[in-house]
Amino acid sequence: MLKTRIIPTLLLGNFGLVKGERFDAWRQVGAALPAVEVYNLRDVDELIILDINATKEMRAPDFDLISELASSCFVPLTVGGGVATIETIQELLRAGADKVLINTAAYRDERFVLEAVRKFGSQCIVLGIDVRRDISGAYFCYSESGSKSEGVDPIQWALLNEARGVGEIVIQNIELDGMMTGYDLIITNLLASAVALPIIASAGAGQYQHLLQAIECGAMAVSAASMFHFTEQTPGGAKFYLESKGISVRK
């Protein structure tokens, strides 16, 4: 049986780490390198680092910074934000990333994901799906840091990219980002039921119970940011709690 992974997410702004609500990252929360070093000591299974400005500024991530962070990171590292070319993926892997997260670029060029999987393998390619619900309750995919609706159903988008070969999917409801009221369990369950890929639930965690709820809905990994930044809860505490509820976790 695969063990559930606990994955903190770090958001890179122009002047260090940031965190906010609903994809509006306005709050400075420190420097990236010390955060990575702390998480090395806190029983995390992986880290996700996202450059939240790279796509809107039409640039690649800061390869030098990623290299510095990766050299101090002792767990698998996924990097996203501004991943729009094969060359960018290659440079990120050279800098020390283990996986790359693709979101906006997947909508712009249907060949991009196929080529990325062909060249680097499914295990390196993570699909990010950001969603909102309209007034009817229907889910739609959003790109460009949650600012542009693609008019695409997330389940169909997940199935299409599963066929293209992506290795796993990070799903997050934009409206729950930073709110710490819990994940969107509906979309998590819908995705987990539709595809055979590992689903990483993201956006909304505020307490250990929220992690358990997402896992019970089919998530094979849970990601959190605000919960670990702004509360006394820790990845190690999350593992202890989940194990007490019968969830198999990595030690």
Give the SSE layout.
Layout: E1 5-13, E2 16-21, E3 24-30, H1 32-40, E4 47-51, H2 63-71, E5 77-80, H3 86-95, E6 99-102, H4 104-108, H5 110-120, E7 125-133, E8 139-143, E9 148-149, H6 154-164, E10 168-173, H7 185-194, E11 199-202, H8 208-216, E12 221-224, H9 226-230, H10 235-244
Helix pairs in contact: 2-3, 8-10
Describe the structure.
The structure is a single chain. The protein has 251 residues and is of the alpha/beta class. The protein has helices at residues 32-40, 63-71, 86-95, 104-108, 110-120, 154-164, 185-194, 208-216, 226-230, 235-244; strands spanning 5-13, 16-21, 24-30, 47-51, 77-80, 99-102, 125-133, 139-143, 148-149, 168-173, 199-202, 221-224. The chain has an eight-stranded parallel beta barrel, surrounded by seven helices. A hairpin with a 2-residue loop joins strand 2 (16-21) and strand 3 (24-30). Helix 2 runs parallel beside helix 3 (86-95) and helix 8 crosses helix 10. The two termini are 14 Å apart. The model has no long low-confidence stretch (mean pLDDT 96).
Radius of gyration: 17 Å
Count of β-strands:
12
Distance from N terminus to C terminus (CA atoms, Å) equals 14 Å
Task: Tell me the helix content.
Answer: 25-40%
Largest sheet: 8 strands, parallel, barrel
Please count the helical segments. 10
**CATH architecture heading:** Alpha-Beta Barrel
Mean residue pLDDT: 96
Strand content: 25-35%
Describe the global form: globular
The third-level CATH topology is: TIM Barrel
Can you identify the CATH superfamily?
A: Aldolase class I
Q: How would you spell out the order of helices and strands?
A: EEEHEHEHEHHEEEHEHEHEHH
- Tally of discrete structural domains: 1
- Major β-sheet strand ordering: 1-4-5-6-7-10-11-12
**Unreliably modeled segments:** none
Assigned CATH class: Alpha Beta
Provide the structure class: alpha/beta
Assembly state of the chains shown:
single chain
